[in-house]
């Protein structure tokens, strides 16, 4: 489900302010992979920051971003020399071995909440990969229980492009049960008549669940890492970074 907040490009632009490039270890990890691939599909591309940077850095091949949030893509489309497609994998074009690399960054993989959603998405990604293509994504390690400090980590203030201060408060729904974590972000600023609130739910899957789901889609896990510095995956790792290939 698309967060209503991101249907408005003015609000979607806040995403890059709260999650700036320099503060994102994932982009440091993913950008070299993108630069070394001739054709790249970014699933859940958001504002397109990764692909836009790749083009700025000289990527001359095919770059394609897919996202269901119109506001996000309106921000991304400031760079017209990249393919930007509105939608999700269920409604995506029938790609057939089109891409050397597919990625899901920003924990977008965790927005796939059911096994059926996951299988549909992974099957579409597998079909989109070339025979030697790779799918790389990350999901937070549930054993670390990172959501317990989100009310601090993801609350704060930014200044938007017009100089207006926007304040955000993050709240996690409690108690957390099973592998689904729901939370809200409430945005306020003196120039708005009322606050804007977004709600999201993420699924926390452990590393043991991923190989089976990928296998069902015709892919095999070739590597799992625990953080953006390529450290090994352990129970204490904050991330489960997975590299998979077509079987």
Description:
The structure is a single chain. The chain has 247 residues and is of the alpha/beta class. It folds into two domains: 183 residues, Vaccinia Virus protein VP39 (Rossmann fold), CATH 3.40.50; 59 residues. Helix content is 24%, strand content 31%. The strands form two sheets. It has a seven-stranded mixed beta sheet, sandwiched between helices. β8 and β9 form a beta hairpin. The longest helix has 14 residues. It is globular and about 55 Å long. 34% of the residues are buried. The N terminus is likely disordered.
Q: What is the number of helical segments per DSSP (H or I, 4+ residues)?
A: 8
Helix content: 10-25%
Percent strand equals 25-35%
Q: What best-fitting shape do the alpha-carbon axes yield?
A: globular
Number of domains: 2
Rg over C-alpha atoms, rounded to the nearest angstrom? 18 Å
Low confidence ranges: 1-5
- Give the CATH H-level superfamily of the largest domain: Vaccinia Virus protein VP39
Number of strands: 11
């Amino acid at each position: 489900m698309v967060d209503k907040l991101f249907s408005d490009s003015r609000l979607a632009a806040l995403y890059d302010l709260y999650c700036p490039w320099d503060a994102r270890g994932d982009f440091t990890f993913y950008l070299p992979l993108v630069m070394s691939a001739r054709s790249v599909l970014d699933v859940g591309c958001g504002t397109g920051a990764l692909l836009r940077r790749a083009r700025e850095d000289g990527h001359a091949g095919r770059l394609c971003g897919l996202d269901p949030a119109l506001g996000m893509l309106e921000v991304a489309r400031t760079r017209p020399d990249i393919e930007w497609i509105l939608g999700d994998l269920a409604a995506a074009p029938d790609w057939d071995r089109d891409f050397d690399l597919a990625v899901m960054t920003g924990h977008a993989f965790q927005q796939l909440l059911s096994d059926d959603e996951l299988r549909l998405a992974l099957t579409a990604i597998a079909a989109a990969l070339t025979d030697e293509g790779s799918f790389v994504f990350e999901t937070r390690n549930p054993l670390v229980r990172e959501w317990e400090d989100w009310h601090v980590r993801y609350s704060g203030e930014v200044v938007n492009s017009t100089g207006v201060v926007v304040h955000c408060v993050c709240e996690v729904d409690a108690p957390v049960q099973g592998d689904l974590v729901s939370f809200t972000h409430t945005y306020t600023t003196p120039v708005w008549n009322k606050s804007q609130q977004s709600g999201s739910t993420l699924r926390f899957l452990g590393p043991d669940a991923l190989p089976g789901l990928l296998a069902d889609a015709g892919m095999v896990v070739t590597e799992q890492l625990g953080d953006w510095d390529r450290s090994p995956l352990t129970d204490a790792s904050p991330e489960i970074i997975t590299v998979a290939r077509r079987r």
